[in-house]
Amino acid sequence: MSAERRVPADFEAALLSLRGHRPRPEFRLEEVPPPTRIAPFALALTGEVNPTGDPDDHLGGGRFVVLYDPDGQPAWNGEFRVIVMARAQLEPELGSDPLLGEVGWTWLTDALAAEGAPYHSLSGTVTRALSETFGGLELRSGTVDIEIRASWTPTALDLAPHLRAWALLTCQAAGLPPAPYNVSTLYRNR
Question: Does the pLDDT of residue 62 top 90, yes or no?
Fold first, then answer.
Protein backbone atom coordinates (compact mmCIF):
# COMPACT_ATOMS: atom_id res chain seq x y z
CA MET A 1 0.00 0.00 0.00
CA SER A 2 1.45 3.38 -0.95
CA ALA A 3 0.76 6.61 0.85
CA GLU A 4 -0.69 9.40 -1.25
CA ARG A 5 1.81 12.18 -1.94
CA ARG A 6 0.94 15.58 -0.57
CA VAL A 7 1.03 18.30 -3.21
CA PRO A 8 3.62 20.92 -2.23
CA ALA A 9 2.26 24.43 -1.65
CA ASP A 10 4.40 25.99 -4.42
CA PHE A 11 3.18 23.50 -7.02
CA GLU A 12 -0.43 23.98 -5.91
CA ALA A 13 -0.06 27.78 -6.17
CA ALA A 14 1.43 27.44 -9.66
CA LEU A 15 -1.45 25.19 -10.76
CA LEU A 16 -4.05 27.58 -9.34
CA SER A 17 -2.51 30.42 -11.36
CA LEU A 18 -3.35 28.48 -14.54
CA ARG A 19 -7.09 28.16 -13.86
CA GLY A 20 -9.69 30.02 -15.85
CA HIS A 21 -7.51 31.18 -18.73
CA ARG A 22 -8.77 31.05 -22.30
CA PRO A 23 -6.54 33.34 -24.33
CA ARG A 24 -8.83 33.54 -27.38
CA PRO A 25 -11.93 31.68 -28.56
CA GLU A 26 -10.15 29.85 -31.39
CA PHE A 27 -7.77 28.21 -28.90
CA ARG A 28 -9.16 25.18 -27.07
CA LEU A 29 -7.38 23.80 -23.98
CA GLU A 30 -7.63 20.34 -22.50
CA GLU A 31 -5.83 18.72 -19.59
CA VAL A 32 -4.10 15.44 -20.49
CA PRO A 33 -2.03 12.94 -18.51
CA PRO A 34 1.39 14.44 -17.70
CA PRO A 35 4.75 12.72 -18.04
CA THR A 36 5.45 10.63 -14.95
CA ARG A 37 9.19 9.96 -14.89
CA ILE A 38 10.73 13.39 -15.40
CA ALA A 39 9.67 15.07 -12.15
CA PRO A 40 7.77 14.15 -8.99
CA PHE A 41 4.93 16.53 -9.90
CA ALA A 42 3.66 17.53 -13.34
CA LEU A 43 0.73 18.98 -15.28
CA ALA A 44 0.11 18.74 -19.02
CA LEU A 45 -2.30 20.60 -21.29
CA THR A 46 -2.91 20.34 -25.00
CA GLY A 47 -4.13 23.20 -27.11
CA GLU A 48 -5.80 23.21 -30.49
CA VAL A 49 -6.19 26.21 -32.78
CA ASN A 50 -9.55 25.76 -34.46
CA PRO A 51 -11.82 28.71 -35.27
CA THR A 52 -15.00 26.66 -35.69
CA GLY A 53 -14.54 23.39 -33.83
CA ASP A 54 -14.92 21.46 -37.10
CA PRO A 55 -12.03 18.96 -37.52
CA ASP A 56 -11.49 20.28 -41.07
CA ASP A 57 -10.68 23.72 -39.63
CA HIS A 58 -7.80 22.54 -37.40
CA LEU A 59 -4.96 25.03 -37.92
CA GLY A 60 -2.40 23.90 -35.38
CA GLY A 61 -1.84 22.76 -31.85
CA GLY A 62 0.63 21.97 -29.15
CA ARG A 63 1.39 20.95 -25.64
CA PHE A 64 2.18 22.83 -22.41
CA VAL A 65 3.84 20.92 -19.55
CA VAL A 66 4.76 22.11 -16.08
CA LEU A 67 7.30 20.04 -14.15
CA TYR A 68 8.06 20.51 -10.47
CA ASP A 69 10.78 18.96 -8.35
CA PRO A 70 10.91 20.38 -4.80
CA ASP A 71 14.59 19.40 -4.63
CA GLY A 72 15.33 21.23 -7.87
CA GLN A 73 17.22 19.85 -10.84
CA PRO A 74 20.64 21.17 -11.90
CA ALA A 75 19.73 21.17 -15.62
CA TRP A 76 16.73 23.40 -14.87
CA ASN A 77 18.56 25.79 -12.52
CA GLY A 78 15.43 25.72 -10.37
CA GLU A 79 12.48 23.71 -9.08
CA PHE A 80 10.07 24.32 -12.00
CA ARG A 81 10.42 23.75 -15.72
CA VAL A 82 7.93 24.70 -18.44
CA ILE A 83 8.07 22.63 -21.63
CA VAL A 84 6.13 23.66 -24.72
CA MET A 85 5.55 22.44 -28.23
CA ALA A 86 3.66 24.29 -30.97
CA ARG A 87 2.99 22.79 -34.41
CA ALA A 88 1.22 24.14 -37.48
CA GLN A 89 1.04 23.75 -41.23
CA LEU A 90 2.50 26.67 -43.18
CA GLU A 91 2.11 28.02 -46.66
CA PRO A 92 4.33 25.92 -48.99
CA GLU A 93 6.48 28.88 -50.08
CA LEU A 94 7.60 29.41 -46.46
CA GLY A 95 9.25 25.97 -46.41
CA SER A 96 12.29 27.16 -48.34
CA ASP A 97 12.78 30.37 -46.35
CA PRO A 98 16.25 30.11 -44.78
CA LEU A 99 15.15 32.32 -41.88
CA LEU A 100 12.11 30.22 -40.92
CA GLY A 101 13.86 28.75 -37.86
CA GLU A 102 14.87 32.17 -36.58
CA VAL A 103 11.38 33.52 -37.23
CA GLY A 104 9.80 30.65 -35.27
CA TRP A 105 12.18 31.23 -32.35
CA THR A 106 11.40 34.96 -32.42
CA TRP A 107 7.68 34.14 -32.20
CA LEU A 108 8.45 32.34 -28.93
CA THR A 109 10.70 34.98 -27.37
CA ASP A 110 8.35 37.78 -28.46
CA ALA A 111 5.37 35.93 -26.94
CA LEU A 112 7.20 35.51 -23.62
CA ALA A 113 8.08 39.21 -23.62
CA ALA A 114 4.57 40.32 -24.67
CA GLU A 115 3.00 38.35 -21.81
CA GLY A 116 5.57 39.43 -19.24
CA ALA A 117 6.57 35.84 -18.46
CA PRO A 118 9.73 35.93 -16.30
CA TYR A 119 12.15 33.08 -17.07
CA HIS A 120 15.75 31.94 -17.47
CA SER A 121 17.57 28.95 -19.01
CA LEU A 122 15.58 28.99 -22.27
CA SER A 123 16.47 26.34 -24.83
CA GLY A 124 14.77 24.61 -27.73
CA THR A 125 14.48 23.82 -31.41
CA VAL A 126 12.53 24.91 -34.45
CA THR A 127 11.93 22.17 -37.02
CA ARG A 128 10.45 22.42 -40.48
CA ALA A 129 9.14 19.35 -42.26
CA LEU A 130 8.40 19.24 -45.97
CA SER A 131 6.11 16.37 -46.93
CA GLU A 132 5.65 15.34 -50.55
CA THR A 133 3.00 12.83 -51.58
CA PHE A 134 3.27 10.00 -54.10
CA GLY A 135 1.18 7.12 -55.41
CA GLY A 136 -2.41 7.06 -54.21
CA LEU A 137 -1.83 10.22 -52.19
CA GLU A 138 -0.94 12.36 -55.24
CA LEU A 139 -4.31 14.08 -55.01
CA ARG A 140 -2.97 15.95 -51.98
CA SER A 141 -0.38 18.64 -52.44
CA GLY A 142 2.86 18.73 -50.46
CA THR A 143 2.81 20.32 -47.02
CA VAL A 144 5.21 22.29 -44.85
CA ASP A 145 4.94 22.03 -41.08
CA ILE A 146 6.74 24.01 -38.40
CA GLU A 147 7.31 22.64 -34.91
CA ILE A 148 8.68 24.77 -32.10
CA ARG A 149 9.86 22.95 -28.99
CA ALA A 150 11.24 24.83 -26.02
CA SER A 151 11.71 24.72 -22.28
CA TRP A 152 12.59 27.29 -19.67
CA THR A 153 12.64 27.84 -15.95
CA PRO A 154 9.98 30.29 -14.73
CA THR A 155 11.12 32.70 -12.01
CA ALA A 156 7.70 33.22 -10.39
CA LEU A 157 4.91 30.95 -9.18
CA ASP A 158 2.35 32.73 -11.39
CA LEU A 159 2.48 30.59 -14.53
CA ALA A 160 -0.44 32.30 -16.29
CA PRO A 161 1.88 34.54 -18.39
CA HIS A 162 3.74 31.41 -19.54
CA LEU A 163 0.49 29.71 -20.53
CA ARG A 164 -0.66 32.81 -22.42
CA ALA A 165 2.74 33.08 -24.16
CA TRP A 166 2.49 29.47 -25.34
CA ALA A 167 -1.06 30.05 -26.59
CA LEU A 168 0.09 33.19 -28.41
CA LEU A 169 2.99 31.28 -29.99
CA THR A 170 0.72 28.44 -31.09
CA CYS A 171 -1.87 30.79 -32.58
CA GLN A 172 0.81 32.78 -34.38
CA ALA A 173 2.38 29.62 -35.85
CA ALA A 174 -1.11 28.57 -36.99
CA GLY A 175 -1.47 31.85 -38.87
CA LEU A 176 -4.09 33.61 -36.75
CA PRO A 177 -3.86 37.39 -36.88
CA PRO A 178 -2.96 39.08 -33.61
CA ALA A 179 -6.04 39.93 -31.56
CA PRO A 180 -6.37 41.71 -28.25
CA TYR A 181 -7.91 39.74 -25.41
CA ASN A 182 -11.70 39.79 -25.12
CA VAL A 183 -12.09 40.52 -28.84
CA SER A 184 -13.61 37.86 -31.10
CA THR A 185 -12.57 37.36 -34.70
CA LEU A 186 -15.34 36.73 -37.21
CA TYR A 187 -14.94 33.81 -39.62
CA ARG A 188 -16.86 33.15 -42.77
CA ASN A 189 -18.75 29.85 -42.87
CA ARG A 190 -17.65 27.38 -45.52
Answer: yes
